Design the sequence.
């Protein structure tokens, strides 16, 4: 579904009013400037990385979320290969954050609050292993935090289905093509952005109480 909507984006941007093309609303973009603090990095995949990007960039303490590919086996994957399920990678984001402001535990809570971890190999109409739910850890402590959050969700009986989120050690992250970075901010009138990404993001902001949002 998303690949088809990408193909019509150029037409929509060409035909819409000029002002609409630059409309960015309240979506928070990341900063590419070097950090002035000791940053940490966390990596998550929860469906389309356009959505995942704006979820984490909305949180206080997160400087940037970069779209890319993780969890696969091939070297230097590209979007077309990942979309065809040939590389084993998931669409994911690297989240660059200040641990003195926001903790890894809060990021994990945001991860589980912003998608359905019981959907196997997909989110909504986006289907395929590249859209699977996956959380990466860089230490035993981070793995424990993820495992504990999964247990809390199971104990809460929030979902009737089982949680299928993969929990994997981090190995390698490949930054996605520039076209995908800050895609929602650059293409607010894309039908997928309007009807899927923004809707899901607004629901997340409404319901997530464990972290602080940027003003």
Sequence:
């Amino acid at each position: 579904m998303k690949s088809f909507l990408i193909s019509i984006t150029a037409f929509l941007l060409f035909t819409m009013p000029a002002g609409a093309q630059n409309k960015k609303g309240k979506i928070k973009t990341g900063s590419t400037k070097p950090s002035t603090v000791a940053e940490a990095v966390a990596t998550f995949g929860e469906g389309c990385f356009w959505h995942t990007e704006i979820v984490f960039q909305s949180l206080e303490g997160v400087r940037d979320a970069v779209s890319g590919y993780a969890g696969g086996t091939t070297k230097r994957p590209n979007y077309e290969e990942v979309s065809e399920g040939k590389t084993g990678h998931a669409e994911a984001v690297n989240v660059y954050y200040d641990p003195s402001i926001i903790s890894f535990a809060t990021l994990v809570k945001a991860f589980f609050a912003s998608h359905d971890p019981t959907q196997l190999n997909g989110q909504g109409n986006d289907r395929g292993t590249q859209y699977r739910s996956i959380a990466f850890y860089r230490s035993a402590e981070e793995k424990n935090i993820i495992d504990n959050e999964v247990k809390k969700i199971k104990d809460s009986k929030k979902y009737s289905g089982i949680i299928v989120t993969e929990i994997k050690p981090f190995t390698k992250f490949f930054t996605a093509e520039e076209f995908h970075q800050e895609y929602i901010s650059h293409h607010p009138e894309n039908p997928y952005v309007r009807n899927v990404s923004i809707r899901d993001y607004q629901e997340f902001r409404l319901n997530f109480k464990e972290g602080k949002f940027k003003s």
Remarks:
- The chain is about 35% helix and 20% strand.
- The chain has a mean pLDDT of 89.
- The first helix runs from residue 2 to 15.
